[in-house]
Amino acid sequence: MEKLLAPADDGVTSGRRAAVPRPLLGRSEEQRLLDDVLDKVRDGLSGVLVLVGEAGIGKTRLLDYAGETGADLRVLRLSGVESEARLGFAALHRLLRPFLPRLDRLPGPQRDALRSAFGLADGPASDRYLVGLATLTLLADVDSPAPLLCLVDDVQWVDGESAHALAFLGRRLFADGVGLVVTGREGEAGLGPFAGLPVRRLTGLADDDARALLAASVAGRLDPAVAGRVVADTGGNPLALIELADELAGRQLAGVAPLPQPLPVSRLLEAHFLRRVLALPEATRSLLLVLSAAPQDDPAVLWRAAALLGLSADAMDPAVEHGVLSRQRHPAFRHPLIRSAVHAGARPAELRRVHGALAAGTDRDTAPDRRAWHLAEAAVGLDEEVAGELEQAAERARNRGGYAAQAIFLARAAELTPDPQDRAKRFLAAAQAHLVIGDAAMARTVLDQAGPVSGTPVTRAAAQRLRAALAWVLGRATTTPSLLIPAAVEVAPWDERLARDMVFEAMVAAMLTREYTVGVTLDELARTVRAMPWNRSLPASVPDLLVAAYTTRIAEGYAPAVPKLRTAVEALRSSDLGQSGLPMALLSYVAAEDLWDDAGCWEVPERISSFSRDQGALHALNVTLYALAASEVWAGRFTSAEAYFGEAAEIGRAIGMPAQGSSHRVELLAWQGREAQTREAAGIAMREWAERFGHAVMASHAHYSLTILELGAGRYREALSWALRGFAADVPGQGNRLLPDLVEAAVRAGDHAAASAALRRVEERAPLSGTPWALGVLARCRALTADDDRAGDLYEEAAEHLGKTRIVTELARTHLLHGEWLRRRRRRSDARVPLRAAYGMFTDMGAVAFAERARLELLATGEHARRRTAVADRDLTPQEGQVAALAAGGATNAEIATRLFVTVSTVEYHLNKVFRKLGITSRRQLASVLRPGPADGI
């Protein structure tokens, strides 16, 4: 039940009688869930719960219960307020205000992010996830004799930035001695950030409980039939039951007089409250209207505005006496619905007059954004002066990272703007701000309001770039290139930097969607970009270098592209990454992969991931973690790959991304020989990602992974059928990695034409790359197709080259193929050496099917080989594995916490569990325990 239902220990009275304490009925399951949260917090862990339901259903009463039951904890309470919903980070500032003196104890990036968000210091715009992490660190590090319980009411009225920070907090709490309970109106947009957290939806009370509550709220006689009618019509809504008990006359409740039609329930509760307000004196009503729009944390503004309107503080008394306001130090509505009723029931002219007074009563220097909004609400028609103030407020919000507030200010500024072109520009800027925070629906609405954009080529290009970005966010990346390229061509003579950025974004989308791209082919895009009249004297950024490399690769072929690919990879290793983000992360490591540059495959995504961690750019970090996981798979470090996949999934959950399933892990599953799971993951990649969203690269990756699966099982014709698809697509990176697999499958399947075609491509490309990886797979492919004793020397050459790389999977397969070749030439004794090496390597990494191939070959040489399993991970969870691996590498607890976006206490909790599971007592023992043991069992 809402605030209204709390025990009346503050002397609140209604118009007819004093309020009496009422029991908390029918909420035993909710009480149990809250008790569970409190128990976890008391045990040093954390608990999170979101309570959702309609107005009056009892959410706030349950918060009261949590506060009362958790009296041994340190309780923080925060309520969302409609008047603050447009002010970025306003609610979070109120919550954290007691702890701001401790800001200096935060890590530098977190401290700076929070200071910038609260306007305490100048600095770059705060990333919302870095602000969320700072909130987590600050609350988890509170010096308090008791754990912390945060109770947040009416979150639908909390500003967007604060809501995202609180949701991030909820997703990252684990072993921090912090509890978070949030309530909100069901169906409200403000609940979006909390998707995926534990939710309890409240419905009306059961019939018996509803009758008991109604009876407890009625002073006189209650007729059973009347009770039944009231309970049925209210749907068991507690607030409606209590208000009706107070609204209806004693004769009606006793069944002597008829009940009104309809009863004031549910959505009519506001009308019920409004009738109570309308019965108050005019001066009281006017003062209530001022209170409904005034800031909650600055009573001086209320009284200054009231004075300007000629209203006295004494006018509040009738509202307190009639239960509209509660008896508190500062005036406060007894229930949020009363505030809504007062505001909704006012005439437009009255509201404008009140907002004008509030603007006049707000200090221009200390609260310029609030003042600007009140001015906007007081404005009629078009007003460029007020629109200009709103635009300045939007810029201040953007500088703090308050993009939701920026969007709201800009949209309202646009509505007040007289000039059509300025109006369109402000709507476009508002749409861009909505896109930054991931609100695609509002971005589309605001973009539609901008209408057809004329004006300069730069303005038109900016509008088209927004439409392209919106298409991407809405799952229509296939249309992005055709939206961007014509606009980039048009704007290039006017703003080449903008044109270059648009071309890069178009290239990223086209590389992702490939044959699914609508309106322009990948080849057409590359040729158009290369033909554009670029100013070659301008310095090339890293994205420019990537565009040059890939357009050359597509339009002219691999050989002319190699020097440009190499230049791009070197720049990615060493140049300033600037505002590196998701597009850069998507293309970063593919160039290294295309060159068979194994060092670059680690160094490039590791560098971008470090940059993304520092900036709090978690979307980009999510992508680069998948790249690092892939590199670990190739290195045969499957446990480490699992840790990266787990961290990527954790980051995805932290930022509210939908679960991505197993499709991104399909190659690891294939190497592990998990057939059913590999086929399921590949099916998701091909159906969901490729066919539904047009992400063709995901289908290519699935084809490659199925090739690996079939090769491991020795099903060569099946492997060949999947490999041929990848050969035709020739996706940069994957296309080259696939070539040795295609050669092997084709040779073993007897398809000499396919083997020769693949070998020719390897022979053309590998020498151009010249890396040990490239030269190693070239030698192996030649060995597979050799028909004489030269194959033995080629296998040894391949092993020598690959032994200088990190690509252990390729080295192990080279040993396996060499051993198989030796055995088939009846050189059994010689075959055992590479076969033992292959068997040990595959077993240690966990490549079960390939290990079995090697074991069977060893048996065929006459050597007994026992089945072995890889070193067990002792049932570590993904996050325990991440913590253990980082600790084994020498990272401190603080460094691990920063890397994984958790707190030090959570790291300590996981390490303790790791020690117990591994049977060790210190982190010094981790490295030896986690390191795979030597090959044995042969």
From TrEMBL:
Gene3D superfamilies the UniProt entry points to: Tetratricopeptide repeat domain, Winged helix-like DNA-binding domain superfamily/Winged helix DNA-binding domain
UniProt cross-references to Pfam families, sorted A to Z: AAA_16 (PF13191), GerE (PF00196)
Keyword DNA repair carried by entry: no
PROSITE patterns assigned to the protein according to its UniProt record, in alphabetical order: HTH_LUXR_2
Positions in coiled-coil regions: none
Zinc-finger is among the record's keywords: no
Region Disordered, residue ranges: 1-21
Keywords recorded for this protein, A-Z: ATP-binding, Nucleotide-binding
Residue intervals of the HTH luxR-type domain: 869-934
InterPro entries in UniProt: AAA_16 (IPR041664), P-loop_NTPase (IPR027417), Sig_transdc_resp-reg_C-effctor (IPR016032), TPR-like_helical_dom_sf (IPR011990), Tscrpt_reg_LuxR_C (IPR000792), WH-like_DNA-bd_sf (IPR036388)
SMART domains for the chain: HTH_LUXR (SM00421)
Signal sequence interval, chain numbering: none
Protein's name in the database: AAA family ATPase
